[in-house]
Amino acid sequence: MKNLTEQKLITAAVAAGWDTNAIKAWKKIIKKEACKRSTADLLLQLEQIGSDSYTRLFTKSRLLPMEKLELVLKQMQAQIDQNGFLQLAGDYRLSPSMPPHGRFLKLFRKAVRQTFLPQGLRPVYQSKRKNELAIKIHLFRSYLDRHNLWYVRQYFPGNTDWEKLQNYQRQAKVKFDYSTDARLHNRYLSNQDFTYPQNMKIQVTKWRRMSEFIVNLETGKFVSEWDFYQQQANGNINADLAGYQVSAGAAVANTGSFNYGLPKGKYAWLLRFSHSHQLLDVKHPTDPQLRYQFNHAKASHYYWKSPQTYLKDSKGGYADIVKKGPVDFLAWQQVPLDQKKEIYQAFVVSCRKRLPKKNPGFAFFWQHYQTIY
């Protein structure tokens, strides 16, 4: 009976596409865990991408990095629909226990870098296979982001997503980074005027800046495309533009994502892949039609437009509110709603006057502003 159980588990791993070395690692796991876990539980571990067992197989496998990426997508039955949206199916899921700083995410990110650098995700490769993989890998980042949001919302207490995120940081003992620009997450409707930033960016961890969270500065709620999309009865996402209103799509326009490269910010120059963010995250294959049309100019309708930074143009009106973390977030919340536009403009002027020094964050400005006025 025991042999039949082991054979069933091994057969499942072979059918999933794992190579000989990964199978050897799986056999060791079975031998160690069979007396503690049921066959069903072990199979679940195999099918949960990012679980301890799955990560062990991913690490021990001698498949090429590109083949590992293909394997994950194949196991999740990832297919691009007629609207350019990546749809997932099948029994494989991202492991509920995998945190935003999880080891598997680091390994997966490394495999992306090994496969697509130095050219990047957007170039047209001679290999049709590699081109198709590049598109899917770009689209898959949204699902990694969805998982991270779910993880924080599911496992940590708090009245808002922001409070839950802070509790995650404390319990996981990870450091957050607030130094990267949130401008592209503060798009506004092109038929309106830009007033002041609505959102801030937090990245995990301080050094890797791998997972990212966009948080609304007023509500403390995550800004995510996944809170906007409609899920169909078959589990797929409705990605047809006809089913949505552009004016209601702020969450799609300003959503967070998962970073395969290292975004610019503090200490980026110390790391060998400091230019990878442009090649893997900024210059990427085309987004799904829904998000693309929300964020690009069309003669027939308005769209979500990114503001111009004060650093590039004396008339540019964008500066990040949050640069130092919670202290900036709390300082901005002290500003009365009817004064935010005026005080924000004064903040931008002060940032411009400080050049070439960097934006110190809103709390620094607010402290001095209150002293003067």
From TrEMBL:
InterPro entries in the record: DUF3114
Organism (species): Liquorilactobacillus nagelii
UniProt name for this protein: DUF3114 domain-containing protein
Domain of life assignment: Bacteria
Name of a matching Pfam family: DUF3114
